[in-house]
Design a protein that fits this description.
Blueprint: H1 21-28, E1 32-36, E2 39-42, H2 44-63, E3 67-68, E4 74-76, H3 77-83, H4 85-88, E5 95-97, E6 103-106, H5 111-121, E7 130-139, E8 154-164, H6 167-187, E9 193-196, E10 206-213, E11 219-223, E12 230-232, E13 255-258, H7 265-272, E14 280-288, E15 293-301, H8 308-315, E16 319-322, H9 325-332, E17 349-352, E18 361-364, E19 370-375, E20 384-386, E21 405-419, H10 421-426, E22 429-431, E23 437-439, E24 441-448, H11 449-459, E25 461-462, E26 465-466, E27 477-481, H12 487-502, E28 507-509, H13 516-526, E29 530-534, E30 542-547, E31 553-557, H14 561-568
Parallel strand pairs: 3-7, 15-17, 17-20, 27-28, 27-29
Antiparallel strand pairs: 1-2, 4-6, 5-6, 7-8, 8-24, 9-10, 10-21, 11-12, 11-21, 13-19, 14-15, 14-16, 18-19, 21-24, 22-23, 25-26, 29-30, 30-31
Helix pairs in contact: 1-11, 2-6, 2-11
């Protein structure tokens, strides 16, 4: 293609409302333009990159035997009501009514629709396993669209679904997807982490996220560079950092201490001149068990934070909320900031495992403006010890003691073992080899297509623009004659362009009558991996080839340029 014939509206100024690199650069490079809050139009360059990402996805999905579908984006309410997610999805779901006042929604994901197809068509174990996938537009009524394509209301997703006769079959389908996803992201040129994650609203027994480390992300991942361990912050486990001060091991009874007006961990710690590691934090929540709600007391070391995911799993509730001040006073007879497990009201008490074996700590006295010192877990109160806390800075890996780090990330893919969640809700069964009706076990697997594009931009950019991986760049090479008025340069550029095209290289010819600096800046901004410059050294039979990412220049003989480029792109 010739640049002069294309619509590539690059911008010199940085858009004022663009906060993250991918948003800023995709706007400046002419990939996208906003239509409304969280709604974007993809222009020529974005469409080329997205098409390449989709092609890689299709190739790898077909390699594991997946079959491509294209399902309806407009869904009747009934199919979502069967699974219980019509209400469960809350305001994130776009809902509407047709002219007959029937409820419909725009699909956020397609577990329900795929399950309804399987229910209507699959009859026997002989038809299993099945892997069905699609690349489809999804919709989410995002309350706070921001960061360009990272938090939007309309987006592309590759979603696939596996149907197996038993758990062993699901394990195999899940592993096929895990390996396929690794190949997809590797082929796209993305550096990524595979982390253990929470299944959330999708349900199921296990899930893993595929993450890109970037400050533009909104998730945190715990990883160990030495061992390769990686997990979502909500699920990660670790060995706590050493105590700031050792426990007093003397056998002393709890003692009441007057702490007037001091309620937070930091305030009490400073007042008593003790480190936060010597205090116990008391968190009162109202846990939802479906048919009833019950108060629960959670205990953590003063410097630790509670993991919502771990708490829900440990307690066995669906979700929870913080107890109100009135609820707390009604239970404990004291206000928040003076609460503790000693002589607490009769309610379940869960203590983080980091408190087990500790001695002579400080807790609230369940009396306003008072705390208790010399409190020993297990002696002065009874609790169930479980892992409740988020990993903190300074923690180490449980088994090896290797250092852990917490990195900010964005999700580009997520795979789930759904189990029987949708089969149970929607009655998906087949006959097994003995003629007995059994439930089908399912998996669900997603990739955010635009997020792959954004991940590449977030990872690979500099002050001059994008440095796109060749596999998903809108063009692999740009041929740039320095002076299009010079017939020799112009003809040599056209010849190189045609030779590269004949070799299957995705090449662009910058035939614009612009200053060389403008051409070079535009090519760097939009992220073309290689630039072949046809300039003054043409008279010596030499062209300059510039690698975008390293900005290194190589002098290559005119006749060798096509093969040289082709070798670099392998």
């Amino acid at each position: 293609m010739y640049w002069s014939h294309l619509f590539i509206p690059t911008l010199r100024e940085v858009p004022a409302d663009a906060e993250v690199a991918s948003h800023r650069l995709l706007l400046r490079a002419g990939y996208i333009r906003p239509l409304g809050a969280g709604i974007y139009n993809y222009l020529f360059l974005a469409q080329r990159s997205i098409a390449k990402i989709m092609r890689i996805i299709r190739e790898e999905m077909e390699a594991i035997g997946a079959q491509e579908f294209h399902l309806a984006a407009l869904n009747p309410a009934e199919v979502w009501q069967e699974s219980g997610r019509w209400t469960g999805m809350g305001q994130n779901m776009f809902r509407l009514k047709d002219r007959f006042n029937r409820d419909l929604c725009l699909g956020m994901t397609h577990e329900e629709v795929m399950t309804s197809i399987a229910r209507g068509e699959l009859r026997s174990y002989k038809q299993l396993p099945q892997i069905w996938y699609q690349i489809q537009t999804k919709f989410r009524d995002e309350p706070r669209p921001k960061s360009g394509l990272l938090r939007v209301r309309q987006f592309f997703m590759k979603d696939s679904y596996s149907f197996d006769i038993d758990a062993a079959g699901l394990d195999l389908s899940y592993e096929k997807h895990r390996q396929a996803y690794c190949r997809i992201f590797e082929r796209c040129g993305i550096e990524f982490l595979v982390v253990d994650a929470d299944s959330g609203a999708m349900g199921g027994s296990a899930s893993q996220e595929f993450m890109v480390a970037t400050d533009a992300g909104e998730d945190y991942v715990v990883r160990c560079r030495q061992t390769g361990y990686a997990a979502n912050l909500e699920k990660a486990v670790s060995r706590p950092a050493p105590l700031a001060a050792p426990d007093d091991t003397s056998d002393v009874a709890p003692t009441e201490i007057h702490t007037p007006g001091f309620k937070t961990i930091d305030e009490v710690s400073a007042f008593l001149q003790l480190p936060a590691t010597s205090l116990i934090k008391s968190v009162v929540v109202i846990a939802d068990f479906g048919k009833q709600q019950k108060p629960v007391l959670a205990l953590l070391r003063g410097d630790h934070q509670m993991s919502e995911t771990k708490f829900v799993a440990a307690v066995g509730c669906k979700e929870y909320r913080a107890a109100t001040p009135d609820e707390i006073r009604g239970l404990f007879g004291a206000d928040p900031g003076s609460l503790g497990p000693v002589n607490a009201p009769k309610l379940p008490i869960y203590a983080d495992s980091s408190l087990e074996g500790r001695q002579n700590m400080v807790v609230g006295a369940n009396k306003d403006d008072y705390h208790l010192s010399n409190v020993t877990p297990g002696r002065d109160f009874t609790a169930k010890f479980v892992d409740l806390r988020q990993v903190a800075a300074g923690d180490t890996e449980v088994e090896t003691g290797a250092p852990l780090e917490i990195v900010k990330t964005m999700e580009i893919g997520h795979i789930f073992k759904l189990g029987y969640k949708y089969s149970d809700a929607m009655g998906l069964t087949v006959l097994n080899s003995e003629g007995k009706e059994v439930k089908v076990i399912m998996g669900s697997y997603g990739i955010g297509v635009e997020r792959v594009l954004c991940g590449a931009v977030e990872l690979y950019n500099d002050e001059n623009g994008i440095s796109m991986p060749a596999a998903i760049a809108p063009f692999e090479v740009v041929v740039t004659p320095v002076n299009v008025s010079d017939e020799a340069q112009k003809q040599a550029a056209v010849d190189i362009y045609n030779q590269l095209k004949a070799l299957g290289v995705d090449v662009l010819l910058d035939d614009r009558d612009e200053r060389p600096g403008v051409k070079f800046k535009d090519a760097e901004l939009i992220g073309i991996p290689w630039r072949v410059t046809v300039g003054k050294k043409l008279s010596q039979g030499i062209l300059e080839v510039v690698e975008r990412r390293t900005r290194t220049t190589s002098e290559v003989a005119l006749t060798e340029v096509p093969a040289w480029i082709q070798a670099k792109l392998v």
